Amino acid sequence: MRMKFPLKWVVLLLIVLGLAWGITRALKARSTQQQAAAVAAEALKMPVTFALKSTDVLVAERLSINQVEPVSGTVRAVNAVTLRSTMGAVVTRINALEGATVKAGQVLAQLDADDTRARLQQAQQQSNAAKAQVELAKRQRDNNRALVEKGFISSTALVSSDSNYATALANYEAALAAQQIAKRGLEDAALRAPFSGVVTQRHVKAGERVAVNAPVVDIVDVSQLEVEVLLPIAASSGLKIGQTATLNLESQPQPITAKVARINPCIDAGSRSVRIYLNIPTGKARVGEFATGELTVGTLQGTAVPLDSIRTDQPSPYVQVVSDQTIAHTTVQILATGRAGETRYAIVEPLPAGTTVLSPTAGLIANGTAVTLP
């Protein structure tokens, strides 16, 4: 006779078998994870080695670099002038158009000179009258001198005639001076260009009345342009006339070369800097545009590395040095910066020449990391 198991025992048996299978699988998975963790822990204990490329390393070498300082300033003309009215008068004629080229001595504006011409005529008449008085006083003095010599009159009359002659002569000289002043005033009514240049602005039009010292015409000599820049006192100690600067101008697609033309011997009280004047080649700039660039202030020698290879993400600047196949972060002191060719370098110490240094392309590698050189 066959035994029959109740259904509940069959279900209970299946549940037990399922739990046993789940527990076995979980224990196996845990064992696998533990083994993987152990392998990872062992891998972490092994040192990480970076394989460097040839572009990732460079050698610090002793170089002679041009020490440069950043400069900036506005282009201006060496010779520039604003012609101003010498009297209160009406402008009768303007011969200057903005942008026109003018020559030295050319009349650019004419002021109404009727009153000045009348004063000159009056001064001429007064000088003529004074001259006649001088001739009359001279004849009287000469006659009295002859009479005194012959004993016909006393010497007192001669003294009086000498005094009259001296007074007449002084009045004549004063009249001549007044005549020269009036003549000069008539000449000043015609405003002339003091040098050859270009008209940049007209402040008045023909028919307008201007006051004394009012601006009339601006002129600049575009053949001589310069940039005034400020340089730190320490950087200017070795600067000499003729040293070069590379400037970037708004009107030029390529940098231009300027030269030091003058060095102000005095220190600017406001900025505590030295004013330097850079001469710009003719036709390379426009008056009023802004210029930026670098000025070569001297030449220095020492152990140099590219400026980009010096890292500044720590309190003190440092370079990444390769020593015994290991990276070492070495603190350096930057003595000066400059250029050698197209590359910007920094002279540093105490880094010896011949040291292998990481280039900027290598990026940041942790201190003490093992590396392999190419």
Brief synopsis:
The protein is of the alpha+beta class. The protein has helices at 7-45, 114-150, 155-188, and strands spanning 49-51, 57-59, 61-77, 80-84, 89-94, 101-102, 107-111, 190-192, 197-202, 209-210, 215-220, 225-232, 244-249, 256-268, 273-280, 290-306, 318-323, 326-331, 333-340, 343-349, 356-358, 370-372.
Helices and strands, with pairings:
Layout: H1 7-45, E1 49-51, E2 57-59, E3 61-77, E4 80-84, E5 89-94, E6 101-102, E7 107-111, H2 114-150, H3 155-188, E8 190-192, E9 197-202, E10 209-210, E11 215-220, E12 225-232, E13 244-249, E14 256-268, E15 273-280, E16 290-306, E17 318-323, E18 326-331, E19 333-340, E20 343-349, E21 356-358, E22 370-372
Parallel strand pairs: 1-22
Antiparallel strand pairs: 2-21, 3-12, 3-16, 3-19, 4-11, 5-7, 5-10, 6-9, 7-8, 9-11, 12-15, 13-14, 13-16, 14-15, 16-20, 17-18, 19-20
Model description:
This protein has 374 residues and is α+β, with helices and mostly antiparallel strands. It has helices spanning 7-45, 114-150, 155-188; strands at residues 49-51, 57-59, 61-77, 80-84, 89-94, 101-102, 107-111, 190-192, 197-202, 209-210, 215-220, 225-232, 244-249, 256-268, 273-280, 290-306, 318-323, 326-331, 333-340, 343-349, 356-358, 370-372. Helix 2 (114-150) runs antiparallel to helix 3. It is elongated. It starts with 6 loop residues before the first helix and ends with a strand.
